[in-house]
Amino acid sequence: MAESTTVDIESQQAELDTYHDEPGDRPVLRARFEHNGSPRYMLYTIKRLGLDHEHGFHLDVQLVSDSLEGGVETVEAKLQEGDADLIDIDYISTARERADGAPIVAIHPYGRTVGGLVTPEDSPIEDLTDLRGRRIGVVRRLDKNWILVRAACRERHGFDPDEEATPVEAGSKVELTRMLRDGEVEGVLQFWPIVPEITETGPYREVLPMAELVQDLSETDRKLPISTFLTSEQYLSENPDAVRGFKGAYRDAVDRLTSDDELWEDIGERLMYEDDPEIVRAVRDGWREMVVADWDAETIDGMDRLFDHLLEVAGADALGVDHVPDDMFRLEV
């Protein structure tokens, strides 16, 4: 891990640790989230406002690397190895891991956490049709953003960029940004909170937000969550009150983050790599547009339709799984 990244993780962790009081007799929920992922804003809000104790549980937050371990993201590895009780990943990855036998379940939506296609300002890439013959950086080939791009290109434009472009796996979001800035790739599919950090501080532009592809491919106007919060079947069985408490604390945090601009100024100062007012506002507005506070059966139906559509268009090889396992989504806890 690069030294600057280590410092960033330690600095943010110190801010969170300021609010890590004793759990008392409350059940502990060990949350492990990426140091550059947007859930950290919500986790910080819960800890700063004491919403975990208010809802009867103790949230223990540790930020981790966004690199891969054994082909899966670090947070996934920690949950499956018993080192975490709460993470967030996209539901396609959840389906892939659960179909392979991982005892993990989705307990609540997070949001439409996709990214954007970012290129240098003078790039000839203007839309998806321009990806032919280009080197495009991705965190990994099974990343949801690349899956969405493959599905959209195959359905709308009659080609598969996995075959007619050159996807270059970076292994982490940090490395993905470096590859773009060093000119090793002609564009990247970067996670949405990092896009403003790139476009506001350098000669780069966002060609296409992946959120547009989500809505087009799902054929619905309803905002669908792509990422959900996960826990293990064992933790859910043994600590249902803690999971219910988290869901309540999350909803309260969403209420504050969607209405309190001063809170975002504090988050920008303490948790963001670029404490620039324009970047903070861009991330704030993007978070508010992305987040999903709750879900119901209609939401799950929409997520199933999107999965089926991606499967039909992109195929099981692109998704890494051919079905959403039964009982993966737990609406009622």
From TrEMBL:
InterPro entries: SsuA/THI5. Residues 60-258 form the SsuA/THI5-like domain. It comes from the Archaea. It holds the Pfam family NMT1. This is ABC-type nitrate/sulfonate/bicarbonate transport system, periplasmic component. It comes from Natronococcus occultus SP4.
